[in-house]
Amino acid sequence: MSVMMLRESNLLIRFLVGDILNPSKGGDVDKLS
Fold this sequence. Notes:
Elements: H1 3-21, H2 29-32
């Protein structure tokens, strides 16, 4: 598995978990972008 795939899946997991924990914030992806 390439680094890019790991990075993308990690961001996706962060987004999903963040969305579950903080639906109003929309996850950690907004902070990273």
